[in-house]
Amino acid sequence: xxxxxxxxxxxxxxxxxxxxxxxxxxxxxxxxxxxxxxxxxxxxxxxxxxxxxxxxxxxxxxxxxxxxxxxxxxxxxxxxxxxxxxxxxxxxxxxxxxxxxxxxxxxxxxxxxxxxxxxxxxxxxxxxxxxxxxxxxxxxxxxxxxxxxxxxxxxxxxxxxxxxxxxxxxxxxxxxxxxxxxxxxxxxxxxxxxxxxxxxxxxxxxxxxxxxxxxxxxxxxxxx
Length: 224
Prior knowledge:
The protein is an alpha/beta fold. The protein is about 40% helix and about 25% strand. The protein is built from 8 helices and 10 strands. Strands 1, 2, 3, 4, 5, 6 and 7 form a 7-stranded mixed beta sheet that branches. It has a 3-stranded antiparallel beta sheet with strand order 8-10-9. Helix 5 (about 140-155) packs antiparallel against helix 6 and helix 6 packs antiparallel against helix 7 (about 180-190). The model has no long low-confidence stretch (mean pLDDT about 95).
């Protein structure tokens, strides 16, 4: 109920752009279960809107280009950051859809870049969309969270994963999925991305009216 209205802005733009063959969905590992970077290379995820199939061929091609991505279903068992994206895609495109989930427990700059480089190699000349799932600042006053998040967002808009990481470190921006964001930026640049646009930014306070301790959300579109 908090992040959905913001995320819908990105999915609206995606719907206008047409249908991809497969969606690579990157998310953080909140539970601390499983490998440092975990992919699934087969199976089906079921939502109330239908089934989403893991694209086995695409997953295996990504694995071939990385030494740190492990096949590990356990990391995805209780994690919500990737699964909450699927109903948006199913609503737009119907079911079934094909996707590849990658879950990040390790979220340092080097890991983000390595996964992003692997994605760029595996996805070249393919009709794919990369989705990075994250919240922004957690549980700070609305004004303070918004100010810090804007700095992090500006780094994303510059397609500068190192600046993004440095802003998070220096300003203590508690974004939960910064590894996926850095991997997405790296991959997007490797695939020829030229620009990024902020579509929406809000906090949970915009929904609840309570501005004392909010979580920030942003929808950003990266294009080539």
